[in-house]
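Q: Is it fine to ask for two folds in a single conversation?
A: Yes, each is treated on its own. Send the first.
Q: Here.
A: Result:
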Amino acid sequence: MTPKIDWPEGKDFAFTIFDHPDGDSVETLEVVYSFLRDLGLRTTKAVWPIRGDGTPKVGGATCEDEQYLKLVLGLKEQGFDIGFHNATYHTSTREQTTRGLAGCGKTRLMPTIWLEFPVGCSRQNNFRMLKKAVQQGRSERRGEANAWVR
């Protein structure tokens, strides 16, 4: 039996958008987020805090771009959630992740949501790993260069 969820304000469901940073630019963000704001929607905007030192699979702006960071901080002030989508636009080592998290603190951009997809893993496998970690009361993968911790 599925437990009943008590949604805010007695609603029957919730709808959310988690916008990945793939292909982000200042120009596209300004257009999309002014539209969402004007509709009264508040979504989650995922960001990459730092420029990577590897070749991006897709690429997009990072918070090391001053104009992009200013726009993202403005979104946060307007009530949009900010999500951490890995440290940069490619798989990140622990050191890169640490640098990315430190970058969040320097910019006053502490994300409220965290998302990481290891490159080369299927979404189904990611879900299994996350489910197992939650069931075991932990959220980490030990012994890997790309390990994530709670």
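Q: Second one now.
A: Result:
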Amino acid sequence: MPDETPETNLPSLDEDTLHASIDVIGRAGGSKYEVGFPKEVEDSMQVGDPVWYAKAKFPKHGCMKVEGFTDPVAATEALARRLVDGWKCTHCGKRVSLAGRLGSENCRWTRQGPRWVRGCESVGELFADMGASGTLEPKVEGKHRWIVTVGYSISEKKLRLAHSKTRVNLDRENRFSISAGCLDCELSWYEGEGKLCSSEQAPEFADKTRKDGP
């Protein structure tokens, strides 16, 4: 956890950005995280003055520090970005990108609320390896079998690559829909909640249904 932020007349802080940045620092092995400003400016500083710094210690790199920022959130986020942008992702082996750089050689991280999310942990991250491996509950008359579907926009070029068994990233920023509904009667959650399912088992998914009961 960070040290307490020095008391001053600060505007409301972006807590999600602050927590996401602190999370990155911790995941990188950082300790003794500190955010603040020099004591000599305490009596004269005004809101918006670029006097804030952030620093932390890391096992392989010693102390890392950034300074000259207008608030503690900006300083902490700058430290997190400096720490991981361009580094090698320990999960997929690609270089990490926090900016808008595209390319299969990068693992682009995006901030999801109070956490930075690896590009390689996205839902359906490797299109070519998305073979369905789950099973469904056996169909029970009158009972819905709820599923969640996720829609991504994808270019024709990427589809051709996927078809040729090339690994294609489905980035979170290209995800345009998430919906829940019944696999069998195709009613949405909002339409079917509290109602009986009126359909028999969807025949195209019969081979995905468990045979040994729920």
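Q: Anything structural to flag on that second result?
A: Two points. The first helix runs from residue 15 to 27. DSSP finds four helices and nine strands in the chain.
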